[in-house]
Amino acid sequence: MHAYRSHTCAELDKSNVGDNVRLSGWVHRVRDHGGLLFIDLRDHYGMTQVMADPDSPVFADIEKVRSEWCIRIDGNVMARDESLVNDKISTGAIEVFIRDIEVLGESKELPLMVFGDQEYPEETRLKYRYLDLRREKLQNNMKLRSDVVSSIRKRMWNMDFREYQTPIITASSPEGARDFLVPSRLHPGRFYALPQAPQQFKQLIMVSGFDKYFQIAPCFRDEDPRADRSPTDFYQLDLEMSFVTQQDVFDTIQPVMQGVFEEFGGGKKVDTVWEQISYKDAALWYGTDKPDLRNPIKMQIVSDHFRGSGFKVFASLLENEGTEVRAIPAPKGGSRKFCDRMNKFAQQEGLPGMGYIFWRDQGEGLEAAGPLAKNIGPERTEAIRQQLGLGLGDAAFFLAGKPKAFESVAGRARTTIGDELGLTDQDRFAFAWIVDFPIYERDEETGKLDFEHNPFSMPQGGMEALQGDPLKVLGYQYDLACNGYELVSGAIRNHRPEIMFKAFEIAGYGKEEVEKRFGGMVNAFQYGAPPHGGCAAGIDRMVMLLAQEANIREVIMFPMNQRAEDLMMNAPSEVQNDQLMELHLRVIPQD
């Protein structure tokens, strides 16, 4: 017999009754039933109930066993009484009578329990992550992650992509997030960087004549943490193709993403038609470039109904250039109680409040109610109701000013309204491509033009587009949104050096600066670069959605905490002086 096990803790069934078996695993739970000892023995695969009575030759040893001890047992498989069969586990029809036991690893008193669903502080969970990971939910999440990555790889290979690895140590990139820098021992005073993404390398792979590339790529960014973003590193499905249009990229990645969500989505509906929404429309309708289309609410511009109206706050605002009034329809939200609740939401977001109108029946037909309705009169409220397609028992909320100042709050209000009124379909994965991103924006304080989004995207219209108003130039850049999260980001690349230099010149970067910052790629593009494009899909975020988790740390094996610290390994840590000297570095004490 094998030194540790003849079967896993998920394999035994009625066909094994009478067999002598050997199992190894962790003591999940011990139950003493008056002289009968029952142990739920757990391994990675499942659970088996093992038991002993005073007739067992090792009964005294079994009495000493505690939760999370790692043990090996030998015993006889017995059928459970029909009334005691546990249909919730694969081994629920049998139990094993223990004849021999070996303690493979004792456990100290546990800082957190593996059995049960108790909640523990994040610091405790991350410091003892190896115990946290023994819990069923975390085991399932990590298995799901592994299975998702495996499925992605198979799907990419089936589409004739090949996987290539790009460097982990490279040059610092001045664009995007902050780099993690790595000092060079051989070149004092100079630094490598961990790559924020394989962006430049995968483009160079296309220049090298490889037609289709993909990689499950680690990326490193020194960012502020969020619930859906790691503060240090993450993994992405990175892909690039030559001789493709934007639609070619969409047609390539959709079956991969759709297939993965159908395979691992737990039976939830997965959209098969992916709408393409312009960045401008997404901001208007949803207040975000990563809309949750499970929520049917679309915001609309209603400025004309307030111009010259009796509601002086909005009427005065609209006299200023670039201002708008937008409405958030709220079907079924037509009660003063709900309107007051949303007004409080706006105040918590830092606004003085949100204007609202709701429609009710006071016995004389449909009536518009609320402070706004009184100020603008019945004709205007009726025009608003008809534009928004609302009726009895519905409401609308209003925000005004320069759109960029209130769009994000409007977007969050839309989400809250959809959730609270039960409008959001929780049993669906809703996808949409966000397209037509503007390449430039103007800083309102300095008046300076700069890149609003990816500077390496090909401008729609090429060089000709760059001769006109820069603020009207759109890029072949795109994101894929799903249920309120950005899952994919990509672009058709600007592979023409003359167009690239012109694009950077508009943003105030001279040719010499571009060559200094991006010399490797710019030089390569002068040797017959093909048209190419691609995208990257966030693995962590995909698994977070599939696992129905609200925090990305629940699907990362060893995550950092909110302060970008590894509490288990004590990172970041101080280093020895001789290490610093070897790297020609000195730490300056902070005051």
Short key terms for the protein model shown above:
alpha+beta; globular; single chain; five-stranded mixed beta barrel; 26 strands; 591 residues
Describe this structure in words.
The chain is an alpha+beta fold and 591 residues long. Helix content is 29%, strand content 25%. The chain has 16 helices and 26 strands. The strands form 7 sheets. An 8-stranded mixed sheet has the order 6-9-10-26-25-24-19-12, sandwiched between helices. It has a 5-stranded mixed β-barrel with strand order 1-2-3-5-4. The chain starts with 19 loop residues before the first strand and ends in a 9-residue tail after the last helix.
Main sheet, how many strands, which sense, barrel? 8 strands, mixed
Alpha carbon gap, first and last residue: 64 Å
Average residue pLDDT = 94
Strand content: 15-25%
What structural class do the secondary elements suggest?
Answer: alpha+beta
Strand order of the largest sheet: 6-9-10-26-25-24-19-12
Strand elements, count: 26
Q: In terms of per-residue confidence, which ranges show pLDDT below 50 for 5 or more consecutive residues?
A: none
Which range best describes the helical content: under 10%, 10-25%, 25-40%, 40-55%, 55-70% or over 70%?
25-40%
User: What is the CA-atom radius of gyration, in angstroms?
Assistant: 30 Å
Architecture blueprint of SSEs:
Elements: E1 20-32, E2 37-42, E3 47-52, H1 59-63, E4 70-79, E5 94-105, H2 122-127, H3 129-132, H4 136-158, E6 162-163, E7 180-183, E8 191-194, H5 199-207, E9 212-220, E10 233-242, H6 246-264, E11 269-270, E12 275-278, H7 279-286, E13 300-301, H8 312-317, E14 324-330, H9 336-348, E15 355-361, E16 366-369, H10 371-388, E17 395-401, H11 403-420, E18 428-429, E19 431-435, E20 437-438, E21 440-442, E22 449-451, H12 462-465, E23 474-475, E24 477-482, E25 485-492, H13 497-506, H14 511-524, E26 532-538, H15 539-546, H16 577-582
Parallel strand pairs: 3-5, 6-9, 11-18, 12-19
Antiparallel strand pairs: 1-2, 1-4, 2-3, 4-5, 7-8, 9-10, 10-26, 13-14, 14-17, 15-16, 15-17, 19-24, 20-23, 21-22, 24-25, 25-26
